Amino acid sequence: MTNSATTTTTQRRRRPARLTALAASGLGLLVGAGALLGAGPPAAADEAGAPAAGPGTTAHCSLPGRHWTAQARVDRARTERFAAYGNSGVGWTGGDSTYSVPLPGHRTVWLFSDTFWGLVNADLSRPTTVPFLNNSFVVERGGALRTVAGGTPEAPDSLVPPDEPGTWNWLGAGQATPASLDVMFLEFARTGPGPLDFGWRKNKLGRFDPDTLRLRDVVPMPSAAGVQWASWLLRSGGFTYVYGVEDLGLTKYMHLARVRGTDLASGRWEYWTGGTWSPTETDSARLMPGVANEYSVSRWRDGYLLVTQDTRELFSSRILAYVGCSPTGPFTEAATLYTTPETGAAGSYADADIFTYNAHEHPDLRRGDRLLVTYNVNSLDPNADLYDDVTIYRPRFVEVTLVPDRRG
């Protein structure tokens, strides 16, 4: 495994399974319970909302009782930085997920799942022979970007390659610990010959050297409840809270676990049941519907802020903010932070196949009440659109100011 930002001339074609499958993992529109390889967890008593705050959590704050106003604008500096780097063809040229983790040395590491690598044509198309990876990093430092991937510059590979043929690993949220950069991963596998014949199989933790970003180890994570424990990691009150998603296709549910301290590998996991914490993973309850596969929950003012794409609507362009007083919720819808302009035939690409997904916030890049929110852009016809136009399959960066309005 090498750190690389070198143009590759590799002439091999990897069929981009995630993209060919209509990006079904990102939206969950076409991959439902029948495609999952694990059994689903039990439903909570009230699936329409979240349970009350539990033992040891902050039950009261000012956020839910206020009215909020959001003002958004494109973060042009970071958008142009990633566009220029992606167009240069020296490594990463597009990807999704778009998590971020601050590291020592004034570095921010951006975490990407499916990744296009290498040559970009002058007309901003890409050759069909460019390498396609399932996970990668891009390190930002002082306005400069570089790609970190596995393999070699001539034959790049995913940072966490598959364990066996017919499987792959997409990443989730990460965190810096005193000893390592820890990133949650989701293993998916083929279940048949069709483009939609695949499903989630298990959760993993990738541990990376914080200086070199080389992979040290891959550790199995809890996977018995049908929950993908990779949506978000939140440190609060001496715990690391691990947010997950129960993906049933058209409906997705938030779940929550926690570990005391920061060691997800050796710490004892507990699961929120809707009223207390249990050591049994299958006791995990549904906190609320409508979240995406990826979302964020962070400390904000005197409570907590949830940012997610609205999955209650098919191909929704709305990025929503919810507020609550505890990591367990309940979360109250507060505002529409942004409406993505790329979506659908009326969008900026004038293409009915274009959709947006998996928005979340980056708390470490916040400036007061100004939030940095990212989301991903993809196509239902990826083998045409994503090769014809490299600008589609890249993150969008939006600054959002969220403040109480006059009623608040």
UniProtKB/TrEMBL annotation:
Pfam family, one: DUF4185
Source superkingdom: Bacteria
Domain annotation DUF4185: ranges: 225-342
InterPro entries linked: DUF4185
Protein name: DUF4185 domain-containing protein
